[in-house]
Amino acid sequence: MKATEVPAIAGAYLFEPTPYADERGFFCRTFDADVVRSVGLDPDAFVQDSLSRSVRGVLRGLHLRSGAGEAKLVRCSYGRIFDVVVDLRPDSPTYLGRASFELSGETQTTLYIPAGCAHGFQALTETADTSYRIDRPHDPSEDVTIAFDDPELAIPWPLPVTSMSQRDREAPSLAEVLKHKEG
């Protein structure tokens, strides 16, 4: 497994496994505590694993947590997703930086998203399973959502949106969220 820094988001990493493929399919390690530790992250900090299943065109996000935030490892375990991270940490050298990735069940690449960054994704295949490993128990009172189509972010979502939650549909702009954070 190889760890690679994400230049557009300080502290973000891609963890790329080495799959072993043969006529049966493949096998790969999707989490390695030693590799996570080698980039300065505490592998024991992750306390919750979650899974979402989405159909083609579904958009989830942009989400983040208030308070201490939430760091997470995100991996598409089946299918393909277009994944987006926005750095909303005012003290970060990449503040307001954006990065997008295609994550797939074929590569099993995992993206580490530091606390204080917004995250969202869109399913690119008929079925896309997305796995999350999160460093804090979920507290719905800390949920923050930013409009996926905010013109300031200009995220190039690859497909028309077929479905999203009401919370995501009614999300405020980035400017409104930042104003609320400062106030």
Automatic annotation (TrEMBL):
Record EC number: 5.1.3.13
Gene3D superfamilies per UniProt: Jelly Rolls (2.60.120.10)
Keywords assigned by UniProt, alphabetized: Isomerase
GO molecular function: dTDP-4-dehydrorhamnose 3,5-epimerase activity
Highest taxon of the lineage: Bacteria
InterPro entries given in the database record: RmlC-like, RmlC-like_jellyroll, RmlC_Cupin_sf
Keyword Signal (UniProt): no
Presence of keyword Isomerase: yes
Reaction equation(s) it catalyzes: dTDP-4-dehydro-6-deoxy-alpha-D-glucose = dTDP-4-dehydro-beta-L-rhamnose
Pathway the protein contributes to: Carbohydrate biosynthesis; dTDP-L-rhamnose biosynthesis
Family: Belongs to the dTDP-4-dehydrorhamnose 3,5-epimerase family.
Protein role: Catalyzes the epimerization of the C3' and C5'positions of dTDP-6-deoxy-D-xylo-4-hexulose, forming dTDP-6-deoxy-L-lyxo-4-hexulose.
Subunit organization: Homodimer.
PANTHER family attached to this UniProt entry: DTDP-6-DEOXY-D-GLUCOSE-3,5 EPIMERASE, THYMIDINE DIPHOSPHO-4-KETO-RHAMNOSE 3,5-EPIMERASE
Identification of the protein by name: dTDP-4-dehydrorhamnose 3,5-epimerase
Annotated source species: Streptomyces asiaticus subsp. ignotus
Lineage: Bacteria, Bacillati, Actinomycetota, Actinomycetes, Kitasatosporales
Gene for this chain: rfbC
